[in-house]
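MOLECULE: protein
FOLLOWS: sequence and fold
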Amino acid sequence: MATVAVETAQRLFHGMITSVFRAPVSFFDTTPSSRILSRSSTDQSTVDTDIPYRLAGLVFALIQLLSIIVLMSQAAWQVILLFFVVLAISVWYQVLSKCHLAEIVQQDPRLLDAPGTIAEYDKPSQLLQDSSSSFSKLVSEFLRRSSQSNS
């Protein structure tokens, strides 16, 4: 796990350095070097500390899941059949949800401004001013319901 974390951190560092070196001079005119150093060191330390813990948690959860399945299948062999049925249903559900997302994006391609980022939710203050946005409707509905529950 440590080698995976080190390799990931090195790739991130190399990518950041390459991006900074290839940036136009105007980038350095508008961005102080202290901000660049602060951001890169913060990101690097997050990657250095976070990845091993998350990877260890994933491995622990997988070992736990496999142990539970093995122990339950020894007690009742029907659990194996149930496991495969649930696995098939979850794979089918994943495919179905991706198909529906593709249909939604196909209807209005402007919903996505980058892979996986819904454009509307990058600008909350502008969206609150626009009463036709989904975000504004969601906030007003939340405020209405919370005021009803407090009354």
Observations:
- The radius of gyration is 24 Å.
- Strands lie at 112-114, 117-118.
